[in-house]
Amino acid sequence: MGRTRADSGGNDVACSRLHPESASLRKGPVAVDLRQSSDAALVMAIARYHQDALAEVYRRHGGAVFALANRLLGERTVAEEITQEIFLRLWNAPERFDPERGSLRAMLLSWTHGKSVDVLRSDQSRRRREERDAHVVAEAGHDIENEAIELAIADQVVRALAELRVEEREAIALAYYRGLTYREVAVELDQPEGTVKSRIRSGLRTLRASLNVTETDSELSKRGPA
After folding, report:
1. Degrees to nearest 5, angle at CA 73 with 163 and 70
2. CB of 39 within 8 A of CB of 104?
3. Residue 17 in contact with residue 98, Cβ under 8 Å?
4. Reported pTM
5. Distance CA 207, CA 186 (A)
6. 46-102 confidence digits (pLDDT tens)
7. Rounded CA gap, 65 and 78, in Å?
8. What is the 3-state secondary structure (H, E, C) of 41-108?
9. What is the distance in angstroms between the CA of the first residue and the CA of the last residue of the chain?
10. Residue 99 to residue 15: CA distance in whole angstroms
11. Domain ranges in the chain?
12. Handedness of CA 127, 158, 222, 67 (dihedral sign)
């Protein structure tokens, strides 16, 4: 994989924020066991153009990135393309990771969600969904008008999700699109379980307001993570 970054100056600034153990990865060949390195150390190595470090980050987080994209889009090929794009973005801009602001996995999943929403909202993707749904309607004999209403509602949900705060959107995506429990979401985001619950409930309230849904918190909670 070739570099597209012409200047590594920004990476030197990023170095100062990462874990001290990354110092051994800054220059020259990688002499440590990457599987034992922290995510911060791996990003430091990526900033120094070590492709093996990127491969290790992919081994750790590639499955989660693909699973989220695939669940959001329902198209394996597109999800694979987004997964490649996310890790290429990390390769080209490792300085965007700040361990003081959250975990590497949380950042990668945030990127994945944002890119997936962009794809869902694109005209090309919308045409594909409408054509596919129209075909299903014709075969099943469904009411086309009702199907059009369902498509409009789905698009409203996408727009409403995009308007949530990043931390709320991440938590809801993990809980409702990947089916994780509160505790599992907390582990994924490296946050206290109470904080995760608060973010999900706050995000759901905002979504209900945006979509004019009148369900109570308790009714929505029954559908949410355990």
Report:
1. 115
2. yes
3. yes
4. 0.48
5. 21
6. 999 999 999 999 999 999 999 999 998 888 999 999 999 999 999 999 999 999 889
7. 12
8. HHHHHHHCCCHHHHHHHHHHHHHHHHHHHHHHHCCHHHHHHHHHHHHHHHHHCHHHCCCCCCCHHHHH
9. 42
10. 11
11. 1-101
12. positive
